[in-house]
Design goal:
Strands 6-7-8-3-9-10 form a 6-stranded mixed β-sheet, sandwiched between helices. Helix content is about 35%, strand content about 25%. A hairpin with a 2-residue loop joins strand 4 and strand 5. The longest helix has 18 residues. The chain folds into 3 domains: about 240 residues, P-loop containing nucleotide triphosphate hydrolases (Rossmann fold), CATH 3.40.50.300; about 80 residues, no CATH class; about 210 residues, Rossmann fold. It is an alpha/beta fold and about 575 residues long.
Length: about 575
């Protein structure tokens, strides 16, 4: 099989110069990388934030060229500027945020943009656009405006725009990072179809282990170099090494590791729930029938209400053809000290709902009360409410702007009119909560992505809000960075006793940290209950386009094979305990 991409001893340095073009700083991002990508392969690239993945990807279609070494695309040296047209027609790029890639006001015009710039004849453009939209299941939306689409639909339109160029290779840099579970599934289905049915080479950069598991091959990067290169089963069997460089393994792979440690004879090379269920079902169980129902989990009953929504409805673009009800007659009570996870597909109303809690949005109808006060009442100072309800939006590091981390964290407390001593106390306390006290005098722009995220969070914590709302705080972070920031938030909540609302598309994160879960669907509350009760409703959640943890899907498949470990399995630890308890070794 011919290679479509060849990388030979590639090095790349990021160079900072002064006004006289003198080199001030040089950072090596790629260090002597060599590998080939056969035509038609589905390659996944994994690595922690800052390991060089995106830098490498930009070499594949000559956005960057190496400081030394070579990259060849279909035999063309990417440093040959006279062949850039051929290189970029061969290799298309799809980036993380679809909103940054859509340029037209109508879907089909957007898909036609690249072929037009390639000088393709109009009749052929029409044909290419229609075919590309059909390949990503977006043909019926060809006359829609892109801004009316969901995140997954937008990303599929962005992919269609690349397909219309008829590339032989598509490079995707975290294309699902901003999508809900349904959107992720849509994009992955599209990627696999293009690869298997159209023969297009796919290079996927991702932080999701379950996506990488679906590839033909995985390359793992660390410190600008290739650490591992192999078939997914072989790579994920090296779980300890992966975790040492800030990565993770699929939940079922981790389960098999835990079962092996517990004495079970099971393969270490398992990455899918089907094969895991099959392997586990063949273990020497003493009992394979349904286990006795576990006792009802005793939940802490909280009675001190801190926020309430009464019949809240919010409509966008009222009185226009684009009028839409984003939140539909929602009523709920939030108690002091609760850790609530909020989930729902893109467009379900999650973000609109949380913005009502500090007055960023005023309901079309209904009442929002914080601490017993109607926040939209005549005598209420909305500024005071916003000090009590802090919202940290997705990619919060974009909010950093001061000279030092300390000044950035101090900005909120200073605007509250606090004394210098109290401001300093709060800065230190918030920095300590986020583990960044050693970074206070640094520029926020000199920090890593994960450190910037924690600095932005500290700026909200310093105002000591009664309610902390987090909208996808771990979006775009690698597994280690995600675990770090969510662990710090959980510890802050435990120590402070504050109320925390966490919006997330990761069911694994919600299960791990939230005590209650609010599920939104089409602007309404689908359910609001304790976490174990919500995730026991697997079929209903999947029915509204949501996901459940991989370990939960595994437990259902295992039950179909005759081994019932319960309907409340949504952590690896619980699955391990239940399985070992039924084995001879655990008797």
């Amino acid at each position: 099989m011919l290679d479509i991409i060849k990388v030979e001893n590639l090095c790349y340095d990021y160079i900072v110069t002064d006004e006289n073009d003198n080199v001030v700083e040089k950072t090596r991002a790629l260090n002597n990388i060599s590998f080939n990508v056969p035509s038609g392969q589905f390659l996944a690239i994994l690595g922690h934030n800052g390991c060089g993945k995106s830098t490498l990807a930009k070499h594949f279609n000559a956005i960057l060229t190496g400081t030394s070494g070579k990259v060849y695309v279909d035999g063309i040296d990417t440093s040959d500027e006279e062949r850039l047209f051929d290189i970029r027609r061969t290799v298309g790029m799809v980036f993380q945020n679809p909103d940054n890639q859509l340029v037209a006001t109508i879907v089909e015009e957007d898909v036609a943009f690249a072929p037009e710039n390639l000088g393709v004849p109009p009749d052929e453009i029409r044909q290419r656009v229609d075919e590309a939209l059909k390949q990503v299941d977006m043909y019926d939306f060809r006359e829609h405006s892109p801004h009316q689409l969901s995140g997954g639909q937008k990303q599929r339109v962005a992919i269609a725009g690349i397909i219309a160029m008829q590339p032989r290779c598509i490079v995707m840099d975290e294309p699902t990072a901003m999508l809900d579970p349904k959107g992720r599934r849509e994009v992955m289905k599209t990627i696999k179809r293009l690869n298997k049915e159209q023969g297009i080479t796919v290079i996927l950069i991702t932080h999701y282990m379950d996506e990488a598991a679906q590839a033909d091959r995985i390359i793992v990067m660390d410190k600008g170099a290739v650490l591992m290169d192999g078939e997914p089963h072989k790579v994920f069997a090296r779980g300890k090494e992966l975790k040492a460089v800030g990565l993770d393994v699929p939940q079922v792979t981790e389960l098999c590791e835990e079962l092996r440690a517990g004495g079970a004879d099971i393969s270490a090379e398992i990455i899918f729930e089907d094969e895991c269920a099959d392997a586990v079902s063949k273990l020497p169980f003493v009992q394979k029938t349904a286990i006795a129902e576990t006792a009802e989990i005793q939940h802490e009953i909280r009675t001190d209400e801190t926020a309430r929504l009464e019949n809240v409805t919010y409509k966008y673009s009222v009185g226009t053809p684009f009028e839409k009800t984003a939140v539909d007659n929602v009523s709920l009570s939030i108690m002091r000290g609760e850790f609530i996870g909020i989930i729902g597909h893109t467009g379900s109303g999650k973000s609109t709902l949380i913005q009502h809690l500090n007055g960023l949005i005023k309901p079309t109808s209904g009442i929002v009360t914080i601490g017993g006060k109607d926040i939209n009442g005549k005598n209420v100072n909305i500024r005071d409410i916003r000090f009590k309800v802090g919202i940290v939006f997705q990619y919060s590091e974009h909010q950093l702007f001061e000279e030092t981390v300390a000044k950035d964290i101090a900005y909120g407390p200073k605007n509250m009119g606090l004394s210098d001593d109290e401001v300093n106390r709060r800065v230190q306390s918030a920095a300590e909560s986020m583990g960044i006290t050693h970074l206070l005098e640094k520029s926020p722009f000199d920090l890593s992505g994960g450190q910037q995220r924690r600095a932005a969070l500290a700026g909200v914590l310093a105002m000591e809000p009664d309610i902390l709302i987090l909208d996808e705080p771990a979006a775009g972070l690698d597994p280690k960075g995600r675990e770090k920031i969510l662990g710090l938030i959980s510890e802050y909540k435990r120590k402070s006793g504050k109320t925390v609302l966490l919006v997330s598309h990761s069911m694994e994160d919600i299960v791990r940290y939230a005590e209650k879960v609010l599920v939104m669907n089409k602007g309404k509350i689908f359910c609001f209950d304790y976490t174990d009760r919500v995730f026991a409703r697997t079929d209903e959640l999947e029915g509204i386009g949501l996901d459940v943890p991989q370990i939960t899907r595994f437990s259902h498949k295992l039950k179909n094979l005759g081994v019932d470990i319960g309907n409340d399995v949504y952590t690896v630890e619980r699955a391990k305990e239940r399985i070992l308890s039924l084995l001879e070794a655990g008797d």
